[in-house]
Amino acid sequence: MTGGTPGASGEGFAEGARLWLEGLGGLRNAVRQELVGRQVDEQIAQRFPVGQRLRVLDVGMGQGTQALRLARAGHMVTGLEQDPGMLAVAREALAVEPAGIRDRVTLLEGDGRETGAHFLPGSFDVVLCHGVLMYVPEPDAMLAGLARMLAPGGLLSLLVRNGDALAMRHGLDGDWKGALAAFDSTDYTNRLGLDVRADRLAGLTATLSGIGAPLQAWYGVRVFTDGTEAGEALPPDDELERLLAAEDRAGRTDPYRGVAALLHLCGVRG
Asked: Which PANTHER family match (predicted)?
């Protein structure tokens, strides 16, 4: 979860959301947020004029890490979040920002599968959907809706669980039964105890092409640190910088990025 969870509901998800929020300060989340932030910045720099104030939609924004980061960079950000608890955390974080940043952010409660009910087609230059698709059993319609929100040349940023690497965690834990089962399925139980699904690179590449936002770049996220516990503390700054440098390079380099826990895919609206 960076973010909200269309299709997830009930006590199980509420407990999962609580556990997610408790682990926000840990190493796994820090690596994820920092790498994805760098990658989004890189894609924006490659596709838009320097200094352009972009219209950004963060679907399933969760606690608002990426939304606030982009608002601080000068962009106009709309955050859409289904879970009231996550939305409350994001509002608390926004409340302590300077007025100029607060004025650039709009937070809405809503389902990411229903963007058409909230916004007009072509309303945004950048659409983020991070940590959401794993909670959506059949995501194609949702992805098509997200693509419609983009203006021509707009950037669609997706962060998903890597369905081609589900066996890695089981194998590294010595769970050979789980590893063997994971080769043939994209269903899994995440660390929050929720039954969810992963996406394969080839499948999402085909989907992005079909909805008019073909894949332009992709990265692996958390190649080396996925096995750490959610609450594991950050190392000293110099060690953290080396860790992030190694993760960043692995996430751009074959074959390492192919076995990352997460995939960050960037499509561009034609």
From this structure: METHYLTRANSFERASE, UBIQUINONE BIOSYNTHESIS O-METHYLTRANSFERASE, MITOCHONDRIAL
